[in-house]
Design a protein that fits this description.
The complex is a heterodimer of chains A (147) and B (267). Chain A has 147 residues and is α+β, with helices and mostly antiparallel strands. Helix content of chain A is 25%, strand content 40%. The chains are: A alpha+beta (147), B mainly alpha (267).
């Protein structure tokens, strides 16, 4: 279950999942932009190339009318992916646990000095984070178990 | 392995190798060139072949590596390739005259819906990312195991599974949206339309219903329908089938059009 920690100047939502699949599969799903809407029910479109320094355009179910322009800030294959904008970053991490499975975690922290001014306008992320992690787990394990 | 035994076994594999290369290059000349280069390279390196894999796997590995350097293999087509090429063919009198000449004079100029289904898959599969296209052909048409494909494409089992799953899913969705043989709402009827042109005495619907994939369509099992489509490809050798000359002529036409189309639309 996703959890959110709120402070005056920030909000941080995180979720994690144990996925019985090779890290390469999880990484491939996380880094192939155009494929997101197929397996991820929280993303309606994702354009661009997910690679270090690139800018991507994301549309999510949280705000269907808005396009988020995000920069890929860290890109460590099969380990860590970070994208974000001036308001915050989303950090994906994949940790191999040694038996062919991985621990996936996703954290997004938004905030800053102006955060109290717009905090109430930002919808909660918890449900979509749960959905994201669940979709990723399901798709990764389906691929891993395919013959 | 002796050269004599190699030559003997090569003869048994070359047909499949050539058809694989045709399906990924969409070019008769390039497929033939890569087959020749594969033979030369394999012969040169025969002393290094330790028989850790089958000769077929080894040859497909060499051929795939050579193919990856081929520009026509690298070029990715568009999902609606058959719409674009149909529009061009309809305004190209010469294309139909040539096709009709092949139809009436060549022993390999028959038109069969099944052969067009295989041809259509070859064209549309070129819209997939290359790795996905290669994995689908290797697994579904040339019946390699996942472990053998890891050798052929020099990648991991996990990635082969990823490419297969994503490629299959994409192709299932494309055909579900387009192919009138499996979806009454499908926008593409080209195989039946061409059957009407080349086999005017046949009733297209009766011909369609001879195909198991069309018979099974109403059950709506998309994965099964895709498997049946792959079974059609496995049955057909695009160089030796009864319709090969007609289909190769059509493929050359489409490839030339796509070469021009991609050149015009590239930034």
């Amino acid at each position: 279950m996703a959890t959110t920690v709120k402070t005056t100047f920030s909000r941080e939502t995180s979720v994690s999942a144990d996925i019985k699949a090779d890290a390469a599969i999880v990484w491939a799903l996380l880094t192939k932009a155009s494929d997101y809407p197929r397996w991820n029910s929280t993303v309606t479109s994702l354009e661009g190339n997910i690679a270090l320094g690139e800018t991507i355009k994301l549309k999510s179910i949280l705000d269907a009318k808005r396009t988020f322009k995000l920069k890929v800030k860290e890109f460590e294959p099969e380990k860590k992916l970070v994208w974000g904008d001036g308001q915050g970053n989303r950090v994906y991490t994949i940790t191999k646990n040694g038996n062919g499975a991985v621990k996936f975690s996703m954290v997004e922290k938004i905030g800053g000095l102006m955060f109290p001014m717009y905090a109430k306008m930002i919808p909660p992320f918890d449900q979509s984070f749960d959905q994201f992690a669940s979709d990723l787990k399901k798709e990764s394990e389906t691929i891993m178990n395919s013959k | 392995m002796t050269l004599e035994l190699f030559n003997q076994e090569f003869e048994g594999i070359v047909g499949q190798l050539k058809s694989y290369l045709l399906r990924i290059t969409a070019s008769i000349a390039d497929a033939e060139d890569i087959v020749q280069d594969t033979y030369i390279k394999a012969q040169e390196k025969l002393s290094t072949f330790r028989e850790e894999s089958s000769l077929k796997t080894w040859l497909f590995t060499i051929a795939s590596n050579l193919a990856k350097d081929n520009l026509r293999v690298q070029k990715r087509w568009v999902e609606n390739v058959t719409d674009i090429t149909k529009a061009a063919a309809l305004s190209n009198k010469k294309f139909f005259e040539e096709a009709m000449h092949i139809r009436t004079t060549s022993p390999q100029g028959q038109f069969e819906i099944k052969e067009h289904i295989a041809f259509c898959f070859t064209c549309i599969s070129k819209s997939l990312p290359l790795e996905q296209q290669l994995c689908i052909f290797l697994k579904e048409v040339y019946e390699f195991k996942v472990s053998e494909i890891t050798t052929i494409l020099n990648t991991t089992e996990a990635m082969v599974k990823y490419y297969l799953h994503t490629g299959r899913t994409k192709m299932i969705n494309v055909f579900e949206g387009r192919c009138a043989l499996i979806n009454k709402e499908g926008v593409c009827h080209q195989c039946s339309e061409l059957n009407g042109i080349f086999n005017p005495k046949q009733k297209a619907q009766e011909e369609v219903m001879k195909i198991e994939m069309a018979q099974e369509a109403e059950k709506g099992d998309k994965e099964h329908l895709f498997d049946l489509r792959m079974a059609i490809l496995r049955e057909i050798d695009p160089f030796k089938s009864k319709a090969s000359e007609l289909q190769l002529h059509h493929l050359e036409h489409n490839r030339q059009l796509m070469d021009n189309y991609l050149e015009k639309t590239s930034i």
